[in-house]
Write a sequence for this structure.
């Protein structure tokens, strides 16, 4: 039985009482999405922080209750008591200890969400009581502005309803796809790390523009606005990237010459190697 359901509408069921262990970069993005007034969720959301200073940031809010481990050694266990949805937003090497710490304080039927890379759901399930579901999620940093991409995968103890609950959770910060757990490392390689690849492209294009002779500020403006505009065009047009590229690439034109050089550099193989290296590291983390 799920606990403490929020008010619901026929279109969008509410999220239950929610606790978050750790409010770092990704946890903060998720919390920001959950705090949107349009989100139907049982309030307040209870979060734990390491320091009293971090908890004090929420002192004047009515929708978040923050408890500092610095002040209360029982903070994590207190936070999850009565929660139907528990988000573990701690570093991967701390996750199993955090799960073990809260295990006996969890409500029967609670859903525990891990956003950590390299920690299989089976390892989390092993330290939690029977009747508690585990769902893994792999969000990315654009979640901070509500434009995130998250892949989620249910563990062995998660039902379809549990996965659906977590899907609705992450829809508060962007788009969501449901995958098998054996695909979660691939999600991390494509979208979890994907923003870094885009930023690297921007870095290299700016550097190349500077080598052409543009001032640094001009180079940044040229490249940043080009990337932002291209992304907006892709979203608003509804066309896929290949067609949009063809739209810009006139036969025997200048763009075609640049594309020929880029493709001659072996981009397909380069991207395959990059994603494979990312997935390999995730598997190494799982084995540690």
């Amino acid at each position: 039985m799920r606990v403490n359901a929020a008010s619901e509408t026929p279109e969008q069921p509410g999220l239950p009482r929610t606790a978050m262990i750790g409010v770092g970069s990704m946890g903060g993005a998720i919390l920001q999405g959950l705090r949107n007034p349009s989100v139907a969720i049982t309030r307040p959301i209870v979060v734990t922080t390491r320091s009293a200073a971090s908890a004090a940031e929420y002192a004047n809010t009515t929708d978040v209750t923050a408890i500092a481990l610095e002040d209360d050694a029982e903070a994590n266990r207190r936070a999850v008591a009565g929660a139907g949805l528990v988000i573990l937003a701690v570093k991967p090497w701390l996750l199993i200890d955090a799960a073990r710490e809260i295990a006996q304080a969890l409500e029967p039927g609670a859903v525990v969400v891990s956003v950590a890379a390299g920690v299989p759901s089976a390892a989390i399930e092993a330290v939690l009581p029977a009747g508690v579901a585990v769902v893994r999620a792999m969000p990315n940093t654009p979640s901070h502005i509500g434009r995130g991409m998250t892949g989620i995968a249910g563990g062995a103890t998660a039902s379809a309803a549990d996965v659906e609950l977590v899907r609705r959770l992450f829809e508060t910060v962007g788009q969501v796809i449901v995958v098998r757990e054996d695909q979660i490392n691939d999600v991390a390689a494509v979208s979890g790390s994907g923003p870094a690849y885009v930023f690297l492209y921007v870095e290299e294009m700016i550097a190349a523009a500077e080598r052409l002779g543009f001032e640094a500020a001009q180079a940044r403006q040229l490249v940043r606005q080009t990337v932002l505009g291209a992304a907006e065009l892709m979203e608003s047009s509804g066309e896929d990237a290949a067609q949009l590229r063809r739209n810009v690439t006139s036969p025997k034109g200048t763009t075609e010459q640049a594309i020929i050089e880029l493709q001659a550099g072996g981009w397909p193989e380069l991207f395959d190697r990059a994603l494979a290296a990312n997935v390999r590291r995730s598997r190494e983390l799982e084995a540690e």
